[in-house]
Amino acid sequence: MVSKNPRTTRGDLVNDLQRAGTKVTKPTISNTQRRQGLKSCSARRVPLLKPVHIQARLKFAREHLDDPEED
């Protein structure tokens, strides 16, 4: 299930298994995934674009709309 949808959380897996009638804890899920060679990580937080940066991007894009395409 995790290999098909990498964004599946441990909580999602626990809930799915409980609905199927199997009682499993989050640490059990983590240990099993680690034994299977799967690693967990958190998505990097990136700052949102400020209005000034949005305007600068739009200006750049408009200025370069007619540039020749490179291969």
UniProtKB/TrEMBL annotation:
Q: Which InterPro entries match?
A: Transposase_Tc1-like
Q: Where is this region: Disordered?
A: 1-23
User: A GO biological process this protein is involved in?
Assistant: DNA integration
Q: What is a GO molecular function of this protein?
A: DNA binding
| Superkingdom of the organism of origin | Eukaryota
Instruction: Specify the Transposase Tc1-like domain's residue ranges.
Output: 1-66
Q: Which protein, by its recorded name, is this?
A: Transposase Tc1-like domain-containing protein
Q: Which organism is it from?
A: Oncorhynchus mykiss (Rainbow trout)
